[in-house]
Amino acid sequence: MPKRHNHEDLLQINVVRHLRDRFPGRVFYASVNQKGTRSNGEQIKLHDMGLLAGVPDLELMLGDGRVGYIELKYGRGRQTKAQKAFEAYCKANGYPYALCHDQQQAVEAAENMWREA
Questions:
Q1: Domain containing 19 — which CATH number?
Q2: pTM, rounded to two decimals
Q3: Using CA atoms, how far apart are residues 57 and 116, in angstroms rounded to an integer?
Q4: Cα separation, 72 vs 10, whole angstroms
Q5: % of the chain with per-residue pLDDT over 70
Q6: Residue 2: inside a domain
């Protein structure tokens, strides 16, 4: 039986599909998947390998060595403490960051980041 997606998963899938369709061959991004249940040993190993709590859903490669970040939340979803800390770090250090609650917001944020890069 196929695994079901939650609302935030579907939002991210739709945003990525839209960006791929709208900007074929021009859009470069990465997703850091931190979801799922892991054993304590696996959590420690991933932490030791560099997995960081609070990293946003999408990292956009903007060109000229710059990156931007988009955190996706469905509906009234709110950031965790770690996500707020990552956002604060980005803003304090000049990295573009957007918190988006729907596909239109995320696509507009991505377009603005690429335009301003």
A1: 3.40.1350.10
A2: 0.84
A3: 20
A4: 10
A5: 89
A6: no
